[in-house]
Amino acid sequence: MAILRAKDTINGTQGTCFAVIDNKRTELMQVKNITATVEKKKTEIPILGVTGKQHKAGGWKGTGKMTVYYVSSIFRSMMLDYIKKGIDTYFEIMVTNEDPTSSTGSQTVLLKGVNLDSIIFTKLDVEKEALEEDMEFTFNDVDLLDKFDEL
């Protein structure tokens, strides 16, 4: 019987996060955490002679959220372009999990068509030593560039 060895779990601090905005690659070292979720959209299908309903997939949507340290104006600049010029920015986020202790190797996911839902434009908080902000976003495509090795 195979078991997962504790050393093969992935340390959440070991990895990188980059954004590609207007063909410029920027390391997002201010990201504290990021999660991207794909949700299938399903339709309920009633079937004659069956008391329950069946389900058929009919699309998907990609949503995400990240918490970042409040140390960069990159996202505020993008939102300002939308406010002042009506230019909405779509970009890519590439996240790599890579724990050198684990024998699972690395995994790299590329989120495409990322678009921010909202951002905090300014913030002060006398009770915080490190300011943070939460951001939600959508994305319209995703690639799995590198896969974890099978254990």
The name of the CATH superfamily reads Phage tail tube protein
Give the rounded overall mean pLDDT.
96
Shape: globular
> How many structural domains?
1
Q: Compute the CA-based radius of gyration.
A: 20 Å
* Biggest pleated-sheet summary: 8 strands, antiparallel
Look at the helices and sheets and give the structural class. Answer: mainly beta
- How many helical elements? 1
CATH architecture: Roll
Helix content: under 10%
Element order, helices and strands? EEEEHEEEE
CA(first)-CA(last) distance:
12 Å
CATH topology: Pnp Oxidase, Chain A
State the name of the first-level CATH class: Mainly Beta
Describe this structure in words.
The structure is a single chain. With 151 residues, the chain is mainly beta. It has a single domain (14-39, 60-146), classed as Roll (Pnp Oxidase, Chain A). The protein is 8% helix and 51% strand. The protein is built from one helix and eight strands, in the order ββββαββββ. It has one helix at 74-85, and strands spanning 15-21, 24-27, 31-46, 53-69, 91-98, 106-116, 132-139, 141-146. Strands 1, 2, 3, 4, 5, 6, 7 and 8 form an eight-stranded antiparallel sheet that branches. The longest helix has 12 residues, at 74-85. The protein is globular.
